[in-house]
Predict the structure.
Amino acid sequence: MNSDTQSLAEAAEHLLKDRLENAQDVCVTSSFQAEDVVLLHLVRAILPRVPVIFLDTGYHFPETLAYRDRMTAAWNLHLINLFPEQTVAEQETQFGILHQTAPDRCCGLRKVGPLFRALADFRLWVTGLRRQQSKSRANLQIEEPFTLPDGTSLTKLNPLADWSTRDVWHYAEYHDIPLLPLYDRGYTSIGCAPCTSLPLDPDDPRSGRWSGRKLECGIHLQPS
Ligand code: SF4
């Protein structure tokens, strides 16, 4: 691991140790992308059984689900699969293919609603968000307040906010952490299969999400 990544890793370890050691009601959200798995590697050294929330939308790549299950078994994770109120079949029967016609609504039903309801049980939410991921994350802070629609206040901790993609890869390689095999096919940001393509702009890792129609699913946007 080079010295820059080493310094960032030590800073993240220090922050997590300080904030998690005596904390109650902590959770981590994970899509099992590279930064989320690096984050889990750091967090589980302090809280091995921290709840790890995965948004099981029903639209994920089979490779993502297989990798999630492999890492969960290998690291004995306390995985919480969050399901939407409707199955994919029920939603498509009632509303049609929302990820084509109204992706914000689809994300609302399958990601944002389930997550915000679940987060009401926690006070500290740890994420693998990074500023470099997208222009929509350029002002990300390492620690931020977050208020759920029901008024519940949480602290959101983003220990990797300063990390580059290269830092994430260096850390994973140094610690022998296997990554989601879809990266080997050229994907640089991986979510639900219908809304994930190879990047349209090589300099923008999230440019393959939603075919450029939107940048965020909504779980990281402060509800108004
Ligand atoms: Fe629906 Fe696409 Fe959002 Fe997944 S990412 S919840 S498929 S719109």
In short: Residues 3-20 form the longest helix (18 residues).
